[in-house]
Amino acid sequence: MGLFDRHAALLERYQTARDAGMDPLRVRLQKVLSPTEAVVNGQRTIMVGTNNYLGLTFDDSCVDSAVDALRSEGTGTTGSRTANGSYDQHEQLERELADFYGMQHGMVFSTGFQANLGTIATLVGEGDYLIIDADSHASIYDASKMTAATVIRFRHNDAADLEKRLRRLKDATGNKLVVVEGIYSMLGDKAPLKEICDVSKRHGAYLLVDEAHSLGVLGEYGRGMVEEAGILDQVDFVVGTFSKTLGAVGGFCVSNHPEFENLRLLTRPYMFTASLPPSIIASVRQALRVVQQRPELRTRLWHNVEVLYDGLEAAGFHLGPDRSPVVAVHMPDLETTTGVWKALLDSGIYVNLAGAFATPNGVSLLRCSVCAAHTREQLELVVETLTGIAASIGLLPRPVMAAAG
Amino acid sequence: MNDGLALGQKEAFAEVEKLLQPFRKGDASIALDTDITRDLNIDSLAVMDMIMELEDKFDISIPLNVVAETKTVRELVDAVSRLRMGA
User: Fold this and answer.
1) What is the reported pTM?
2) Enclosing domain of residue A148
3) Do B61 and A155 lie within an 8 Å CB cutoff?
4) Which residue among A97, A206, A314, B31 sits deepest, i.e. has the most Cβ atoms within 10 Å of its Cβ?
5) pLDDT for the residue B2
6) Nearest CB to B65: which of A151, A164, A168?
């Protein structure tokens, strides 16, 4: 048996797309022009699939901070903090993240994936219970494979189903950790976090919230769904990433748990990975300041969400249930999705193609992410172009005027 | 063929058999030795949906670790009856 034989079905579908001249996994950005534009296939392209929610990747103050750190502290740390030591900046960033959330402790990881993997798999072990939302990100599912805890999943965003499952565990003696996300990455739907928090606390469970797609996006101060739901004083662990709103790469966990610092001794994805380079830490620290100092970016982002979400909804598309910076457009099947995705790219618009293995229930989606730096004209062009492509293949009713003509 | 089963197992089997009907390949009936992914037209997502139906029906939670180790109808029936007894 060949090494990849067990993946034959998936590989075959990928090959079919490649044979049709489409390779969604190998899109090459020949030149990145700004947070919202790049050159793809020799063509100036509007980027609507970046997760760059506030457009900070080209923010002058963030770039300057990174360049200064690069000059003064070098290109990399060449090892883990456990073995090689921490730079001052690592600890300063941890302090700043903890302060941002009003928490006692903060820990920085080299990616957001590792932040979930490391914290979740360390917090619960044999005899404990890990209770996850069914639509959880791959990093949470992989954490559930790393831990010896019993793993139970509840129906997506369903606090009543979570309660049933916690009730069934009422006589269990182990610790219980409930894991949810603020905004779900594929459909852009928000967790009913207040209800989930109430249920978790009522049943003596710890609550961990992954704010990957909601940091800087939700809440008056940009602290995410935990702030919007008003549960900052009750949530036990907040995990997040530097690779979306904060415009770089890395992850973190903050908490008020008195023994939180033990994680540094126990969490292998933290202990055995090189720490983030000084330039990354510096730009992230500055981006976190910008999130706090420039709330108008958040206002602009939500205006843009309205333009795209409401425009596509009015055109007749079936979208994710909540208005959020992740705008998911439902498509009937993967073949159609791939075709529309390619037609959009040929028209100079890049969105994410998402299908089985990445989406809840294997639905096919064109996933758009909105950026504060998008102009109204760019987003209106996206609505117009996508509507035209969909109408041309019969996915949408043709506009009334055209039909009459 | 199911005479050797305890009452709880019979109930579990009846429910599993009902939920798996739509995924039969041809005329092959659902038996204890049916391999859920190999002998049926069912993908992993549909398996998870079926698991959730079973959980609701019997008021149990079947841990993901148990699902991962369950290959045959017999193993699923055993897991359901074990969990119903609180084991």
Assistant:
1) 0.94
2) 59-293
3) no
4) A97
5) 57
6) A151
